[in-house]
Amino acid sequence: MLNMITCGDASFSEGHQSRMALVTTAEVCDANPQLIVSGELRALQPVFQIYGRRQVFSGPVVTLKVFEDNVLIREFLEEKGNGRVLVVDGGGSLRCAILGGNPVVQAQNNGWAVKANKKGIGEKHVPITIAGTRISDGEWLYADTDGILVSKTELSV
Known about the structure:
By secondary structure, the protein is α+β, with helices and mostly antiparallel strands. Helices cover 18% and strands 31% of the residues.
């Protein structure tokens, strides 16, 4: 199962629901004020919409930076997710979709050209900035309908 959260230049996908599923991001923030002050726990700006089935998920982050090219994304998604969360910086391009789905079909029906390049250009496992927050490979992402949190370590409440 694939869960997607997107915002113009960013995408998140995951393959499992963790033990944090019953704990909200608000509860995580309330239980860890010292991590927020130190910057070890960060909240992304609330600019994302949920399109997938799962509205609550978490896992270790794998980062990918691409621009109008989806080859590396497809390569990652062909691997076993093993509970990881793929965080993609798409460079802010609105000229093409780097992930498929209903928005792509709608855009094509409306006469938009939305085909991504197939050159395989991009960077794997690099720090990226999404919604004003720097996210690094190996950090943990926690998402629910209240928001998205990124932590340097796995959290428990």
